[in-house]
Amino acid sequence: MSLLRSSLFTGVIRQHVEHAHLGHHLSRRAGTPAEASGFGMATAGPEPPGPLGSLGSTSQAMKKTIGHRGIDPTGETTYKKTTSSALKGAIQLGITHTVGSLSHKPERDVLMQDFEVMESIFFPREGSNLTPGHHYSDFRFKTYAPIAFRYFREMFGIRPDDYLVCSLCSEPLIELSNSGASGSLFYVSSDDEFIIKTVQHKEAEFLQKLLPGYFMNLNQNKRTLLPKFYGLYCIQAGGKNIRLVVMNNLLPCAVRMHLKYDLKGSTYKRRASAKERDKAFPTYKDLDFRQDLTDGLLLEADNHSALCKTIQRDCLLLQSFKIMDYSLLVGVHNMQQACQEQASRVAEAGATDQRRPPGQKPLYNTAMEAIQGEAGGMPSLDTEDQ
Amino acid sequence: MSLLRSSLFTGVIRQHVEHAHLGHHLSRRAGTPAEASGFGMATAGPEPPGPLGSLGSTSQAMKKTIGHRGIDPTGETTYKKTTSSALKGAIQLGITHTVGSLSHKPERDVLMQDFEVMESIFFPREGSNLTPGHHYSDFRFKTYAPIAFRYFREMFGIRPDDYLVCSLCSEPLIELSNSGASGSLFYVSSDDEFIIKTVQHKEAEFLQKLLPGYFMNLNQNKRTLLPKFYGLYCIQAGGKNIRLVVMNNLLPCAVRMHLKYDLKGSTYKRRASAKERDKAFPTYKDLDFRQDLTDGLLLEADNHSALCKTIQRDCLLLQSFKIMDYSLLVGVHNMQQACQEQASRVAEAGATDQRRPPGQKPLYNTAMEAIQGEAGGMPSLDTEDQ
User: Fold this and answer.
1) Could you tell me if the ipTM is greater than 0.90?
2) pTM listed for this prediction
């Protein structure tokens, strides 16, 4: 922790850095190597997807068969032998149903028992009294702790109709092509606000066990930078369980991050690989941060102090969860550079962002706004990550 | 629950009733008769003590040897063979120490693990580096979940220095003479705000297990009428463990309650006994309520609706705790009668309340203020319960 703080906050003077976007990036449980690579709750680890149209031949080349993730003869990604398209379909049918049926249940307080609940609904291909017909194989959709996650979504200001259903279930989910080494599959909602990630059995179990502590943190540490967990589900198909977590996208593309750092507070082998550096928008690491930003980042005194306090509180919680290998994801939006980009985009007529109309604000608070404790206005900028 | 509500809120018209004071009175766990009589978390079940000076010969006559509670040859109450005076001394030394040592620990968020913590400090008669000398036998003072209870006290607006220490530890504790049939010993603080009650091993264990759910309730159900738990302690002396819970006094004497009802929502044998009715200020039961207040109690529409909602939420929590035998304690302050009493007291010159200077407000919110969701002003009245 002290290393983390010293690398972030030593002599913070850097005038042109005007928007730092931060969030914790949980990646591993202490002492449980089997779960290590899988607990990648990060939402910005994998490269953000390009505009929908570009998910073609280039992304196929990057696909790899790792763990449960595979590729079928047609070139489509699979997870535990279920095709990505069937998985996406089941996710959308399942979430639509579970959020819809929750809306008929009266509001009530979350109880300790609610964290252990699992609701289940069967989706036969031909449809049923409760579920619509579909074109995939029969599947069962299970919702972990529905009442608890409804509470979390409310705490995060997500209204069931306007946001979760619209964002996740009315528009296609986008598969992230560069899903990293964990063998997980990542999807992002069309509006770029939600990430859906496959998790292993143990990870889902672990997350469910953490929910009471997570609840307590949300009620005490309002500015927490921990990932926002919106739902935990399991799709049972073809005798396999595919578990999924829905979280916030830490770095939605609405604000272009010119620099990204994944900081662990360690200097041991903490430099981005040559391969990572070759990317258009690499995620750098601690040693790069030290080298590139010798003066650190400039934060206003109040924000600096609030951020330090929040990181301390978050770390205390992570420590209590016995999670030790997490990182702080720092995104830097360079205002000066953004203005230049905007100007050059205006010059090239016709260039538009296909994912978010210009001028549209991100739906939910950014981490920086959370740190500041208020939803300050944010400049609306076109973004192009591809 | 429906019975409870119907008996309370059917046709509520009663103009002269202007202050109803309510609170849940937990008394028993479902299906565990061994703990049944002991989980009397009520704070107004036993008769409030009279002014300090009156605790003399009359109270001795009412003492009974029940369970762990006994009387020694000098006539002093004992609990597990420890005299009441030694117990009071140990309580005050222990709480002073534990609250004092907490104040040196930095504020931090409560974690799930904090509910299971038990801190222990030894008080040798001759004193130690950490503890003062005293005139009782050596004892050990254990504090359950100190960080969690610090959080609860803060939630309840109790500052460590001004309230807990002053109320509980600087002035003598008053032993309640009419401690009921549970075999528990009750103390009230001199300012009449706090109740200390001995609890059995199983009860202390049970309460500690409930703490996470209690935490969740406080964060969601701000107007809860459940008892306020301020601390749970254990005094180890002479090879015996004496466990104590500190709670709010539901009906502090600052506001005189002209009528008191202990309502369970049942009509089976729910009439105050002849012995109870003979008391100066009896606590009546459901059948008495129905008979005496045929039109119920008048509450403003907003308060009525808030109260119903709060009772529903409280009951849901109690149900989740598998507690079924609780009651709603209703205190009625009759404004008209109070004015008459005040007038007659003014007429008799020299009559003063020894426990609270006239005009002093109770320190903490009343249940009615909690229902209303604001700390409204309350008329200050002299009270005489003896």
Assistant:
1) no
2) 0.79
